[in-house]
Each structure stands twice: as structure tokens, then as C-alpha cells.
Amino acid sequence: MIIAGNWKMNMTRDAARSLVTALSDDRANAAGDSQMVVFPPAVLIDTVCAAASGLAASGLAVGGQDCHAMDSGAHTGDIAAPMLAEAGCQWVLVGHSERRADHGESSAMVADKARAAIRAGLKVMICVGETLDEREAGRANEVVGAQVLDSLPEGLTADQFAIAYEPVWAIGTGKVASPDDVDDMHNHIRAVLTGRDASYDRIDILYGGSVKPDNAEALLGLDNVGGALVGGASLKADDFIAIARAAG
Ligand code: PEP
């Protein structure tokens, strides 16, 4: 299981240090074998890696929230995957719905970013999810299935990526998909993945969208749920640790 925290455009340097210290302490004492990953804003990656250094064995990994499709060049404001790797990241998030919506990122662009991440030796967490209109129109499976296939580069091995299913209408809204809906969608994503490559039966498929300590256990207990991608609740040590504990 992977319990991932997407800090988005939040946190100060001091707050990041104390949150990572609390998470590292928890990982050092945690009984289960779930992996914890945090995705801080790019300017805090150095701070987070320094605070977490020496604690990698306890299961805390660090990732970037996005990367460019090119390895370097004239792309003002962007961050290349090799820069994330050099800063100490093991992961990068690509295709978050806020990137797809705010920056017009298509699944083809997301796949190019994922290729860049793999070239840099990073693991990619590829985000997919339908809007409320798409769900109400009965198109959720079709939309998410296409996002998975089009965002996932051909030829990745099963240890190079994870999928995060995040229904757009559940992100930051307090509305959580029901366990039945999550179960149906994760089963569908599993079928899409194994249709591409049989070895993808062991890919972690994370659920994201208003995951909190009080709903984590029900969601994480579902067969094809391999973890959680957590936004708001990942900013509070107690909440994030409680979610990680629910993962076992
Ligand atoms: C997210 O941003 O990936 C997310 C799931 O946010 P929240 O947990 O706040 O809904």
C-alpha cells in the first residue's frame, strides 16, 4: 500500500520540517509495510529531503508534484525530472486533475511527462478521474479507462508506476466516492491495466478525493485499492498518520 500526501501549493519551510519530522517518527515505529510518500511544492523538496534523510529505511519517500516532458531547455517556470531526481525525489505525480484543468494538460502530455520521469529514474504516479458531468452522464468508466491508456506510456514495468484514481468532484470538496463506486472503478482500472500487460495485476491503484481518518479504513479495505492520495488531510500530521495506520 502507498499512502501519499499531495501538499499542493501549501506549507512553509518550518511547517514542512515539523510535519516531516512527525511523519518520520511515525514511520520509524509503524508496524505495517505500507509506504508513505509526500509531494511538497518544488521549493520545499530540498528541505523535506534533508529532514527525511537517513529515514528512507523507515518508508518515507519524496516526490515532485509535476515535471516537464523535456529534460532541460527554455521552459520558464517548469521543472525537469532530472532536477527532481537530483534533489532527492523518488517519485513524481503527473496528470493531477488540477494540472489537467489549470494547465490544459491532455493525457498525451501526461504520457510525455511520465516518459521523462522514467528516463530520470523516478517512479510515476499517474492521476486519472472523471468530472461530475461525466459521471452523471454514465461515462465515468469510459473517460477514466481512456485516461489510463492514453496517459500511460507503453512498455513501463510494474515497479515503475502507480495509478491514482481521483474523481474530480471528490477532490477538496468533502464528498467521498462511495466504497461501491470506488470498488467498481478500481476493478475497471485493473481490467484496463491488465488488458495492456498481465504483469500490471500488481500495480497499486490509489484512491484520492477527500480521504480522511474516518473514511480511510473502509476505502483502504477494498480489494483493488492499493493506497490513498491525500490532499487536505496530508497537511496535518495526526490526520495523515491516522490514514497511514488504517493502511496497516
Ligand atoms: C488531491 O489533491 O489529490 C486530493 C485528493 O485532495 P483532497 O484529499 O483534499 O480531496
Highlighted features:
single chain, 248 residues, alpha/beta, TIM Barrel, eight-stranded parallel beta barrel, 10 helices, 8 strands, binds phosphoenolpyruvate
Count up the domains: 1
Give the ligands present: phosphoenolpyruvate
Contiguous helical run count: 10
Structural class: alpha/beta
Strand proportion:
15-25%
Could you explain how this protein is built, in words?
The chain has one domain: Aldolase class I (TIM Barrel). 42% of the residues lie in helices and 15% in strands. The longest helix is centred in the C-terminal third of the chain and has 18 residues, at 179-196. Strand 3 (60-64), helix 3 and strand 4 form a beta-alpha-beta unit. The protein has helices spanning 13-29, 45-52, 81-87, 97-102, 107-119, 132-136, 140-151, 179-196, 213-220, 237-246; strands at residues 2-6, 35-39, 60-64, 91-94, 123-128, 161-165, 205-208, 227-230. The protein is globular, with a radius of gyration of 17 Å. An eight-stranded parallel beta barrel has the order 1-2-3-4-5-6-7-8, surrounded by eight helices. The protein starts with a strand and ends with a helix. The structure holds phosphoenolpyruvate (PEP). Phosphoenolpyruvate (PEP) binds next to strand 8. Phosphoenolpyruvate is lined by residues 6, 166, 171-172, 208-211, 229-233.
